[in-house]
Amino acid sequence: MFSDPFFWLSLAIAIILGYLTRHLLVSKQAGSAEEKIKLKLEEAQTQAKGVVLEAKDKAALLLEEVKKEEKEGKSQLLKFEDRLIKKEESLEKQFADIVSQKGFLEKGISDVGAKKLEIEELRKQILVELEKVARLSVEDAKKQVLDRIKEDHGIELAKALQKLEKERREEIEKKSLDIITSAIQRYSRSHVADITTSVFQLQDEELKGKIIGREGRNIRTLERLTGVEFIIDETPDAVVISSFDPLRREVARLALEKLVKDGRIQPAKIEEKVEEAKQELNKRIEEIGENAVLEVGVIGIPKEIITLLGRLYFRSSFGQNVLIHSIEMAHISGMIASELGVNVEIAKKGALLHDLGKVIDHEVEGSHVEIGIKLLKKYGVDERIVAAMQSHHEEYPFSSPESYIVAAADILSAARPGARRGTMENYIKRLQDLEKIAMTFEGVKNAYAVSAGREIRVFVVPEKIDDFGALQLAKNIASKIETDLNYPGEIKVNVIREMRAVEVAR
């Protein structure tokens, strides 16, 4: 078969035909791909043209908007420049008006000055002519006019002066209140520190850390439960307890003492010890009140009043312990009442309870006398005792011999040298100086310093001093006291003129 020529010819023809067929197929496929590429290219070119046209349109619109905004900006700028020009023109006009008015005013001032000089010269000429006609100088004429006014309208002038003085005094008192308030805030530190702080001594400096506690828990608990402030600073072995309330300070001191002795300082233990301190202080107050009553030697005082008396031990007045002062008064009152033959027990009780209102005078509105009266009446105390104590500051009239005795005992106890901040010698000298100053004025008959030197009563000769003169004398005495003496508070000058007409019928 392989030797047959026809076979080989056929094979060759078949190969040639296969090649030609494949070539045709490949050519056809290539032509189809080229057409696709060509179509894609045309499509892309079409899209590109569309994008370009769209971009051109947007650019044109944007350019148009920019031109429009530029035009509007230029328009606003022109308007603003126009307003500025108008404003400038207005200011220039106003400035011109001001300059014109200034010149007018200067001319007016000059004219007024010239007229004033003319009037002053004319006034002098008139005065000279009047002096020639009246044969009196200006000073003599003033004196005569004033004398005539005093004679005819003395009472009206006195009333007017009193009114002016009252208004002036009210104004001065208002200003003085502000000054005093400021002074108290600035300069009362040393005295306030003495009466509002207690110092607790520590055995070990390390105890300060325990008292403070972690993140200050212990000291915050102490301050919250006791109502005081604990000051822990660089002062060695000491903690300062600060509060205006002496009872709270004492509770805090006792609680801190108990905690230090126990050694366990923690919030739960603090609450326990504070409560124990309060109970202990209450018992101590009752004991102090009972001891005071026993020392004075009186009976029949209600238990509530005795407790309040114990609280007075923690109050002071002018540096004097109020309870000790009351006990002193009770002894003095008892001795005076015994000598005079009046009720000794009433006098003692009135003296012992006279300052009872000071226990809660910071809690209740009113003076300590009024508060004390309410407390005594509340607990059914004898009305005679109330009458005896209510007059010790002369707020109420003296209604019994015992009331005079209590007032006298109060003065004696407070005036005892060393009892308060001031001595008896200084007190007496101030009274004498007041009386001497008053007696230096002409027409004064007698002068007496009363109310612990807070008032001086001056008696004048009515033939030498009239009503208007009495008013002027009071002013002169007050002025001289202000100049010559140093004293706390104020002193009232009371000038008394008495005219008696006596005739005998026969």
Low-confidence sequence ranges: 187-191
Q: Find the CATH superfamily of the largest domain.
A: Hypothetical protein af1432
**Helix/strand/pairing category:** mainly alpha
Instruction: Kindly state the number of beta strands.
Output: 8
Quick recap of the structure?
With 506 residues, the protein is mainly alpha-helical. The chain is built from 15 helices and eight strands.
Notable traits:
506 residues, mainly alpha, Hypothetical protein af1432, 4 domains, 3-stranded antiparallel β-sheet, 8 strands, flat
Topology:
Layout: H1 5-134, H2 138-187, H3 189-196, E1 197-201, H4 207-212, H5 217-226, E2 229-231, E3 238-242, H6 246-262, H7 267-296, H8 303-312, E4 316-317, E5 320-321, H9 322-340, H10 344-352, H11 368-378, H12 383-389, H13 401-415, H14 424-439, E6 444-450, E7 455-460, H15 467-484, E8 492-497
Parallel strand pairs: 7-8
Antiparallel strand pairs: 1-3, 2-3, 4-5, 6-7
Helix pairs in contact: 5-7, 6-7, 7-8, 9-10, 9-13, 10-12, 10-13, 12-13
Q: Can you give a write-up of this model?
A:
There is one protein chain. This protein has helices at residues 5-134, 138-187, 189-196, 207-212, 217-226, 246-262, 267-296, 303-312, 322-340, 344-352, 368-378, 383-389, 401-415, 424-439, 467-484; strands at residues 197-201, 229-231, 238-242, 316-317, 320-321, 444-450, 455-460, 492-497. The protein is mainly alpha-helical and 506 residues long. It folds into four domains: 19-102; 190-284, K Homology domain, type 1 (Ribosomal Protein S8, Chain: A, domain 1, 2-Layer Sandwich), CATH 3.30.1370; 300-415, Hypothetical protein af1432; 426-497, K homology (KH) domain (GMP Synthetase, Chain A, domain 3). The strands form three sheets. A three-stranded antiparallel sheet has the order 1-3-2. A three-stranded mixed sheet has the order 6-7-8, with helices on one face. It has a two-stranded antiparallel ribbon with strand order 4-5. Strand 4 and strand 5 form a beta hairpin. Mean pLDDT is 80; it is low at 187-191.
